[in-house]
Batch of 2 targets.
Target 1
Amino acid sequence: MIIPAAAGVRLYGEEFAARPEDAYDKLRAEGPVAWAEIAPQVRALVVVSRRAARDLLNEAGTYSKDSRMWGDLARGLVPRDSPVLALMAFRPSLLYADGERHARLRHAMDDCLARINLHRLHDRTRGHAGRLIAEFARDGHADLMSQYADLLPLLVFADLLGCPAQMVERMVTGCQGMIGAGPQAEQAAADLAAVLAEIIQLKSERPDDDCTSWMLAHPARLGHEEILHQLVVLIGAGTIPTAAWIASTLRLLLTDDSYAGDLSGGAVTVRRAMEQVLWTRSPMANFSVHYARHDTSLHGVPIPAGVPILISHAATGTDPAAPRPGYGNRSHLAWSAGPHRCPAESHAAIIAQTGIEALLGHLWDLDLIDPYTPNRHGPFHQCPASLGIRFRPHTADTLTPSSLPNAGGLRDHGTDPPRHHRPPPV
C-alpha cells in the first residue's frame, strides 16, 4: 500500500495552536481519515469522522494499541528527540496493551478507582481549590492556568496516590514538566518515575488507604514496574485533560452570552457548560493512537499496517456530519470509546466541577484579560496556553481560612451573586 511522501496539514506549531479548527476543516476535505504531520518528520493518519472513529475504537481485532508496531519508529525514521514520543513510545502499561494483558491491567485500574469515595474526593478537591484561591485572592489578577487549573488536579491525585507531603512538590514539578517538549519533558518523565517508585516502595512497606496501596494488594498481582506505569497513566490521563477541561469551561462561562447572565444558576449551569466543552473543545484533541495489524481500509480510506492512527476527539465533536443532539447528550468521544474508554470519567468530572464552582463562588467582578489566547503547542491536548483574569481583590476581612476551603456551589456564596462581565470585543 502506498504511503504519501508528505502530509500537508500540521497539527503542531503556532498556526495550529491559534486556529485548530482550520486544520480540522482541511482534514475533513480529504475524507473521514486523512494524513497529517503531528510533529516535525512524524506523519500519522487522523480520524475526523465521528462514525469512522467509533468503528475503529470498537474493532480491536483489526487495530492494536501496541506502539511497537509503529513502522517508522522501528526503522529509525522518527527523530529521537521528537516531542510526541513522550506519549506514543511503548511502555508496559494498559495504554499500550491489547487483549488479555489489557484486561488484566484494566481490571486492576477499575477496581482501584471504584474504591475512591466520591464524597471525599469532592471534599479534597474543595480544600485544595480553596487554598490555591487564597494564594492569589488578594492580588486582583491571576493566570488561571499556571496558578489554578494546572495545579488543582495534580494536588488531588497526589492525595489519591498517597504521596507524602514532602514529595508532593517533586511530583507536581515532574508532571508539569512532561507537558513541555524535547529533553525537558524526557527529564521530567524520569523525575516523576523516580517519585512514583519511592511511593510504591513506601506503600509496599507501610500500606495505607490510597490507590498505590490498593494496586499493590490487588489480586492481579502486578509487579512494581507494572504499578509504576499504571500510576503514570492514571496521573497523565487524570490531570492534564482535567486541567484543560477546567480552563476551557471557565473561558466559556465568562465569554459566551448564553452563560454570562446565568452564572447564579448554580451547578446545572456549570455542568451544561462542561458538557458543551467536551463536544466543542475536547481536552484530548488528537490521541487514542492505534495501529492496523495488516493493510486495511476504514470508510473507504486505505490504512497501511504500522502507521499511527490518531482519533481526533476534537474534530469528531464538531463533525458537521454528526447530529447536533444538544449538550445534554453525552455521545461525544471526548472520553474515547471501546475497551480503552477512559475509566475515570466520574472522578475527573467531580474535580473539574468542584474546582470551577469554587473559583466562581469566591472571586468577584471577574473578567478575562484576553479570551482569545491560543492553545498550548502540540497535537494531543486542547488547552489554553494561559487564562489571565482580573477581579475585585479580597481584603483581610473577606478572606478567611474558613471561607475559601469550604467553597461549595454557586448558590453558597452569600446574598449577592458575584458579577461577571464579558470583556469588550477585541
Target 2
Amino acid sequence: MQGDFVRAVLQVFRTIGYKLGISAITFLSGVLVTRYFASLSDRGTYALVTSTLLFGSTFLSGYGAFVNYGLNRLKLDRSRLLGVLSRLYLQLASVIVALLIVSVSLTHAFSVFFYISFILAVLPFVILYNYSSRLLQALNEISWVNRMNMVQASLFLVGAAVLYGLNHARRATLSPHLLVITLILWLCTNITAAALIVPIARARAGTRFTPRRDEEVSKPFFAYGNRISWQNLLTQLNYRGDFYAVGILAGSRGVALYTIAVTASEILWQVSQSISLAVFARIAKEERHASIELTERSFRFTFYTLISGAVIMFACSPLIDVVYTHRYQGSIAPFQILLIGTTAYGATGLLTQFFTDQLGHVRFPLYMQAASIATNVLICVIAIPHLGIVGGALASSTAYFLALTLSVLYYRRHTNRSLRNLFFFTHEDRLFLRRFTPRRRSLSEGSK
C-alpha cells in the first residue's frame, strides 16, 4: 500500500506540473484576450458563450463517467462497453447537428442564435474529447491525459498571441471583429484536440470504437450515466449560478469583472484535479478498505495544499490590477472572497469520486449540489443588488463550503470513520514526508 501510494504521489507531482502548465497557458491566453478586446462588453459576451457551452457539454459528457466504473468496478468487457458509448455519441452528434442547422437558419432574425451556433458547432468535439479522456483515465493512462490536455490550451495561446499582435498593429480595422475571430479560434482548437485524442484512446484501449446495441451493458450504463449527467449539470450550475446571476443583476460589465475573479480563483482546482486524476482508476478498483485509506490520504494532502495555495494567491491578488490593466481593479475583492470557496470545493471532488466510483452512490451528489445551488441563488438574489459582484462571490463561497460540509458528514455516515482521518495527518503521512528530506541531504553530501 505504501509503495503504491509513493508511485501515486510521484504521478500526482507530474500531473500537478502539467496542470500548472495548463493554468499558466490559460492564464496568459486570458490576459491577451482581455487586453485586446476593446470593451468590457465583448469580454463579458465571450465569457458567457464559453460558459454556456459547459452546461451542455457537462451534462452530455456525464455518460463517459461510467467507463471507469464499468471497467474497473463492474469488470465489463471493454469492447462491449465502448460500443454502447460510441453508439450514444453518434446519436448525440446527429441531434446536435440538426439543432445547429436550425440555429444557423435563425441567425438573421435573432442575433443571439449567432452565438448559439458557435456553441452547437463546438459541442460534439468537446463531448468526443471528454469521452476519449475518460477512457484514458479509466485505463490509468494519466501521462497521455496530461499531454493531450495541453493541446487545446497551447493552440489557443498561440492564436491569441497572434491576434494580440495584429490588433496592436492594426487596431482600427481589426478591433470590431475580434470577438468573432476569437470564437472561431476557440472552435478550431477544440476540433484539433478532439481529432488528436481519439486515435490515441483507441490505440491504448486496444479495440475499435464500433457502435453496437447491447441491452445487458446499456441498462447499467444509462442508469449510472443519467444520474451522473444530472449531477454534473447541477455541479455546473453550482459553478456558474452566481456568474449568470451577476449577468442578470449587474450587467455585462459586471460579468467581465466577475469572470476574471472566477477564472483566477479556480486555478486552485488544478491541485485537487491533479490528485483526483492520479487516483481516478484506483478509487474504483481497490477493495473498500484500501479505497477508503487512499481517499482519506489524498483528501488530507489536497486540503492543506489548497489552503497553502489560497494564502499565496490572496497575497498576490493586487497583481490583477497590473496584469489585466486598471479597468479590472474591481475583480480583486470578489477574487479574494472566492478563494475561500474554491479551497473548500476543491477538496469535495475526491469525496464525490469515492461515493460514485467506489460505493456507487450517485444520488447523494445530486442532493448535495441541489442544496448548494439553492443556497447560491438565494444569497445572490439578496446580496448582488446591494453589494454588486462581491455579493456573487459571497454566495458562491458559502455554497461551496456547504457542499464540503455535507460531503464530509455523508462520508462519515457511510464509512463510520472519524473526521480526524480526513483532516489530521497520520504517523504514516509524516514518515512518508520525511523520506524525501534524508534523500536530499544524502544527495547534497555526496556532491561535496
